[in-house]
């Protein structure tokens, strides 16, 4: 497969940093590219994605590349980069785990190997809270919590596998500064259409996600998770490019989201409910292809631990500008308005099942 370049002139290479972003057109990628392009310390950004977007941020060159096995050689694309930020991820199809494994694990392995072959000094990888083993909801865990994921869900299984891959990679390539970002659930206005396609499909009319139209929120056992505005996560990636840090960083905003918080957002009451009936309904909807997200991911969410983000604050100098509630309110407003962005994954009428982070 021959890489396809956009018609945009190549990014200038000078004294500043050159950063390659793999998976640059999705929810996280667009925020990371925007911050990199606005940073005076960054001279050029090379954004890699399967399809060239219409969006044209400054200092950025686009190139269409598929990272899966059989794709083009990535080493020339990484040559001379100060950092590679790896964000590419395929969430769908959940019914064919071998297909997501091909992109998310085999493709990521190609990215890691190419970074080493190109002698890139820093590799920054998008891990996730989903990499963590089941953990507590009543206290916070730091980055030493086990990362074995929830084995039934493809997303968490693949994130956990890549943690093991990086364990070995760090031993083999001690000259590379490896950073693992482990954010909570990431939301922004422009990601609304994409995330609706990935997780809810036709079952969730965006215009109905508003206060007064949702009468009640079920308080399920284990329904307590952490959220973060995508732009705040991107700020942590930017800090990791220039600071001499390595290892894992938890990223989340306060407060943790539960039925009470969701009830306040939607001006709705909450009521106690066992998880089993809702899980059964989701499983039935998934089997009938009414929703694209597997019920196994629902199981994982109920088991994810709450993360302590002290290390990101102290070593990255990072602090989220938005609360979790602000991030969710912005996202829900985007759902109601059908918000998106001029990149293939974030487009309002994009193709379902082929999203990137």
Please give the largest β-sheet.
Answer: 8 strands, mixed
Q: Structural class, please?
A: alpha/beta
Residues in helix, %: 25-40%
Termini Cα gap = 23 Å
Mean pLDDT: 91
DSSP strand (E) fraction?
15-25%
- E-strand count: 16
The strands making up the biggest β-sheet line up spatially as: 1-4-3-2-5-6-8-13
Principal-axes geometry comes out as: globular
Number of helices: 11
Radius of gyration: 20 Å
Kindly describe this structure.
35% of the residues lie in helices and 18% in strands. The chain contains 11 helices and 16 strands.
SSE topology sketch:
Layout lengths: L3 E2 L11 E6 L4 H12 L3 E8 L10 E5 L10 H4 L4 E4 L10 H21 L4 E5 L13 E2 L12 H19 L4 E7 L1 E3 L4 H9 L15 E4 L4 E2 L1 E3 H13 L4 E5 L5 E2 H8 L2 E4 L2 H13 L7 H7 L4 E2 L2 H6 L8 H14 L20
Parallel strand pairs: 2-3, 2-5, 3-4, 5-6, 6-8, 7-16, 8-13, 9-12, 10-15
Antiparallel strand pairs: 1-4, 11-14
Brief description of this entry?
By secondary structure, the protein is of the alpha/beta class. The chain is 35% helix and 18% strand.
Question: What would the keywords be for this entry?
Answer:
alpha/beta; disordered N terminus; 16 strands
């Amino acid at each position: 497969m021959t890489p396809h370049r956009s018609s945009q002139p190549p990014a200038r290479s000078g004294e500043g940093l050159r950063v390659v972003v793999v998976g640059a057109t999705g929810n996280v990628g667009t925020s990371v590219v925007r911050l990199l392009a606005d940073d005076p310390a960054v001279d050029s950004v090379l954004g890699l994605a399967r399809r060239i977007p219409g969006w044209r941020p400054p200092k950025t060159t686009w190139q269409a590349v598929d990272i899966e096995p059989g794709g083009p050689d990535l080493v020339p694309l990484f040559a001379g980069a100060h950092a590679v930020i790896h964000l590419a991820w395929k969430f769908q199809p959940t019914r064919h785990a071998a297909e997501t494994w091909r992109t998310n694990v085999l493709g990521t392995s190609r990215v890691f190997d190419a970074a080493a072959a190109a002698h890139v000094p820093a590799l920054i990888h998008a891990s996730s809270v989903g990499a963590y083993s089941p953990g507590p909801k009543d206290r916070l865990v730091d980055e030493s919590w086990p990362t074995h994921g929830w084995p039934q869900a493809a997303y968490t299984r693949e994130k956990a596998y890549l943690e093991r891959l990086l364990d070995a990679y760090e031993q083999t390539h001690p000259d590379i500064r490896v950073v693992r970002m482990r954010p909570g659930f990431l939301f922004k206005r422009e990601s609304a259409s994409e995330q609706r396609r990935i997780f809810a499909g036709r079952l969730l009319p965006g215009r109905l996600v508003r206060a007064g139209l949702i009468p009640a929120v079920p308080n399920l056992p284990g329904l307590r998770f952490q959220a973060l505005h995508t732009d705040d996560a991107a700020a942590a990636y930017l800090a990791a490019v220039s600071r001499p840090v390595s290892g894992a960083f938890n990223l989340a905003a306060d407060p943790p989201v539960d039925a009470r918080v969701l009830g306040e957002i939607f001006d709705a009451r909450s009521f106690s409910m066992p998880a089993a009936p809702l899980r059964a309904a989701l499983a039935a909807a998934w089997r009938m292809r009414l929703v694209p997200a597997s019920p196994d991911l629902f199981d994982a969410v109920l088991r994810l631990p709450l993360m302590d983000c002290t290390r990101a604050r102290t070593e990255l100098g990072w602090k989220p500008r938005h609360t979790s509630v602000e991030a969710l309110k912005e996202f829900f407003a985007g759902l109601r308005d059908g918000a998106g962005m001029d990149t293939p994954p974030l487009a309002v009428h994009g193709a379902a099942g082929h999203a990137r982070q």
